[in-house]
Amino acid sequence: MTLPQPEATAHTAAVPGRAGLLRRLLRSPVAVTCLVLLVLISLAGLFAPLLTGQDPAHTSLTDSLAPMSGKHPLGGDGVGRDVLARLLYGTRTSLLGALLAVAVALVIGVPAGLVAGYYRKWFDAVSSWLANLLMAVPAIIVLLVVMSAVGQNTYIAMAVFGVLMSPGVFRLIRASVISVREELYVDAARVSGLADPRIIRRHILPVVQAPTVIQAAQMLGLGIVIQSGLEFLGLGSADQASWGSMLNDAFANIYTRPVLMVWPGVALAVTVAAFGLLGNALRDALDGSAVKARRPRGAARKRAAEKKAPSATHETSGADDALLVLEGLKVSYPTAEGEKTVVGGVSLTVRRGEVLGLVGESGSGKSQTAFAVLGLLPREARVSSGRLVFDGKELAGLGRAEMNRYRGRRIAYVPQEPMSNLDPSFRIGSQLVEPVRRHLGLSAAEARAKTLGLLERVGIADPERVFDSYPHQISGGMAQRVLIAGAVSCEPDLLIADEPTTALDVTVQAEVLDLIRSLQRERNMGVILVTHDFGVVADICDRVTVMQTGAVVESAPVRQLFAEPRHPYTRMLLSSTLEDAEPRSALGPAVPASVATSMNTARQEGPA
Q1: pLDDT at residue 592 tops 80
Q2: Does residue 546 register a pLDDT over 50?
Q3: DSSP code of 101?
Q4: For the domain bounded by 351-378+393-575, which CATH number is listed?
Q5: Parts of the chain belonging to CATH 3.40.50.300
Q6: CATH class of residue range 18-287
Q7: How far is the CA of 84 from the CAs of 36, 51, 131, 224, in angstroms?
Q8: pTM (predicted TM-score)
Q9: 3-state SS, one letter per residue, for 410-470
């Protein structure tokens, strides 16, 4: 059973809260009309015993095809049952059957789609194969087989139909998750040390909720139609009133009492249309901008005794105080031609209070090395290393849960694309506060105060406004400052900055570099600066490691490397810079003045 599926997008607008969503819905006349109709229909089914005193299953041959009267306001059907009673009680059967089908489809499809889209691998392959198999099976054949085996029970049939609809939900959720799982703000959440369930709940679910709501509304309408169709064919519960069985009776008497087709037909049309239009209205409300979050009315009282949070020591160490030791790192990926190595045998050391520049052209393996330290390489990557020791602890072979104790808290990361690493669904403040509360155990008020102080420290003039803003409301330079504030918020020992000034103009680059250097000195952090800009290296780094095609070709103190580069590749990189270079010669022989004058005259006059 294939449903029209909303388009899965990688980015979503901010999702409003419950109060904001309700307000936006109430501003839409279509949504209000649909809500009123659905509420009235539901109430009519719920309070059916109060609205009619007739038994929907009672037959009377004397009332067969009875006209409208005080006893039968809508008349009688072919066997003398009251049409109004069957219409009201049939509302229960139709709505409950559709809700059951949709609930089953969501319970199966949503978790399976989240797990398959986020983790991929074998579960994705198996679940996708099962989904394709279910979608290839004719639904009506399956329903007929089930009903012949278990008997004519409407709710069992709708539960089976929910299973048949679940592949559509699974495919929608899976596609939505795949489109967003590689977004940089999801990687930033991993770097912050958030666990996978929290990332899925906070960053993935907002992406899938809007298309899920729309598809659920479509499935409700479809479920009502399918349930009515089964009843129309006489495959439902014989002792339950339903709109489908009313249509079956009306069709048998269409020439003698055609008006009997009107009541169940109108009920079906209005209900299905209301669900469809309400789904569209909900989509528009979910895609709208969120209402402004409330600010705290007052500052929370400080705790009597400040909670002691785990923090790294920042004592000045000697030159041999190694913070990170990496030896023999190898990263490779499987390809159709075989295994391809992108990093082979890289070794480097970062000491406390030292800035190490990791330099090389694009594709030299700099970012792969940084991601290997963070434990953020793709799952298909094959990583091996002789040693990966951080502050005396071997990190090689640690699982994701163990690495989350280090990421964000002890090892922080600043990406090169600031706008892509901020989740567009959340305000900046909420994205900065969450890692602080998780790692340092602060209260909401304390985390807010600490975050506002950090925003001010990184040079943001109006921290309150930025704290309450969405990522699209700030500039790229300000977003980079926000990410730096988030990276140092938990007082890490090691900061990995992956080309943090690439997308910024020259003046903002200088400010960001000064900011990183000042923060590094204040907190005595070790810093790995991934870059291809030797100007940045000369400005901020203490030592330089040069990489070429996945291997380290030279490592030296910055002054020594600039004064006496040893490797030909390093000399080639330094000679490629434009600073202190001789003016280039002309591209061709000079054009005589007389020829240039005639050419200009010809251009001005144009063709004859």
Answers
A1: no
A2: yes
A3: H
A4: 3.40.50.300
A5: 351-378+393-575
A6: mainly alpha
A7: 21, 9, 41, 19
A8: 0.53
A9: CEEEECCCCHHHCCCCCCHHHHHHHHHHHHHCCCHHHHHHHHHHHHHHCCCCCHHHHHCCC
